[in-house]
Specification:
- It contains 19 helices and no strands.
- The chain is mainly α.
- It has one domain: Amino acid/polyamine transporter I, CATH 1.20.1740.
């Protein structure tokens, strides 16, 4: 439940509005295409997790099968990406609170939620797990209820029938053509970021050969039901031209159809979803930094645990994204959310690209040794080749989306910085292997 909770957050509940503006009702096709790309990554991770069950995950695999630099770059890039995503999630939480308190400044909510998230991540692991479990449960159960009520509204079961007219009104099903559908895939990829955690945590189970395929099937079911079904309900009930970033499209649905108090309930749910995802991602960023420290790639202080077994120093350092969000909420009140996800976006495709490249290297390695493996990817390395080509196309397409245009230049500069840091660190002292020191990344 916790792994699933990390994958369902502001990318679906708020960021999907960006894809709707680009693709119209054909956003369903955008997210379906994004799901195919995500599937290639899941296949790759699943094969490696079954063969090499370890908590080191994709950072460890990149180090083992590509190069130590790859493991270093993957871990730090994933850390930065999640740090910025946590910042975007507290901004989204502030937007949701604006639904009830439109005159309250966003910085109050951002500061308050940030302190609460840091506090929970410094409690015991049992307290953290309980809080995150119930937050994740709220949004999963509510999405199922949303899909049920939305379907009843569309087809007139116990409610006045809305019908399917919104799918083709206002310029047709795909008002911006294939170009709009293709550009909509960018936000779909951002929304799916976090699925890799599901594949990795399944690989840490007692019986990964059984757990990994089961987690894969469950994840695919969630992709189809939650993302595609949820967006189909949204664009079916509300004209796509009226959807924007001022509030969650999911809240707008119930606000427009007039079900008493339903919009307030849904707003509470999307707020809890943002906080759940932020809480979970802050947890993983802190563990990533902890892993880097224990591997010799970060200061020793970040690898220390509190008496309760929590990496407090790593949590505080990983909270930088929320501090950035607080500043941006003052400088760019209307665009802080989009700015943060634009900066964070490069990290997702880069991590997936490196995972797919690692899978190809992994397959070539086991074939040279003539070692039998669980073959989960139906096309072998060609599944990963497809994913690499598709992700490169997604990165290239960000140039035509103004809010994401900064992603590739910023990401390139970041990789250059990380590379310099890696060689400096290697020169100062040879880091130890991450194989036994990377609990979560």
């Amino acid at each position: 439940m916790i792994g699933l909770g990390c994958t369902i957050g502001t990318g679906l509940f708020l960021g999907s509005a960006i894809s709707v503006k680009l693709a119209g009702p054909a956003v369903i096709l955008s997210f379906a295409a994004g799901a195919l790309i995500a599937l290639s990554v899941m296949w790759a991770l699943a094969e490696m997790a079954v063969e090499q069950p370890a908590a080191g995950s994709f950072g460890l695999y990149a180090e083992m099968y590509l190069h130590p630099w790859a493991g270093f770059a993957v871990r730090y890039t994933y850390w930065l990406c999640l740090v910025m995503i946590v910042g975007s999630e507290v901004v989204a939480a502030a937007i949701y609170c604006g639904f009830w308190f439109p005159h309250a400044p966003a910085w109050i909510w951002i500061a308050g939620f940030s302190m609460a998230l840091v506090l929970v991540n410094t409690l015991s692991i049992e307290d953290f797990g309980s809080i995150e479990y119930w937050l994740a449960m709220i949004k999963v159960v509510t999405i199922v209820v949303f899909l049920t009520l939305g379907s009843m509204l569309l087809f007139g079961v116990a409610f006045p029938r809305v019908g399917l007219g919104n799918f083709t009104a206002h310029g047709g099903f795909s008002p911006n053509g294939l170009r709009g559908v293709g550009l909509g895939v960018v936000m779909a990829i951002f929304s799916y970021l976090g699925l890799e955690i599901v594949g990795v945590t399944a690989g840490e189970a007692a019986d990964p050969k059984t757990a990994v395929p089961r987690a894969l099937r469950r994840t695919l079911g969630c992709l189809a039901l939650f993302y595609l079904g949820g967006l189909a309900i949204v664009v079916g009930l509300v004209p796509w031209t009226e959807i924007g970033l001022g509030q969650s499209p999911f809240v707008l649905v119930f606000e427009r159809v007039g079900i008493p108090a339903a919009s307030h309930i849904m707003n509470f749910v999307v707020l809890s979803a943002a906080l759940s995802s932020a809480l979970c991602n802050l947890y993983f960023t802190a563990r990533m930094l902890f892993s880097l420290s224990r591997s010799g790639f970060a200061p020793t202080l970040l690898g220390k645990l509190s008496k309760k077994g929590m990496p407090v120093a790593a949590v505080l350092t990983s909270s930088i994204g929320m501090a950035v969000a607080l500043v941006l909420s003052q400088l760019f009140q209307e665009t802080a959310f989009v700015f943060l996800i634009g900066v964070a976006f490069f990290g997702g495709p880069f991590i997936w690209l490196m995972t797919l490249a690692t899978h190809i290297a992994f397959r070539l390695h086991v074939s040279r040794q003539d070692h039998p493996i669980a073959r989960i990817a139906p096309l072998g390395i060609w599944s990963s080749v497809f994913g690499i080509v598709a992700l490169l196309a997604v990165l290239a397409s960000t140039w035509w989306i103004p809010d994401f245009r900064r992603a590739v230049p910023a990401g390139t500069a970041w990789l250059a910085f990380v590379t310099v840091c890696y060689f400096i660190w290697r020169k100062l002292g040879s880091p130890k292997s991450a194989a036994g020191a990377a609990p979560d990344g």
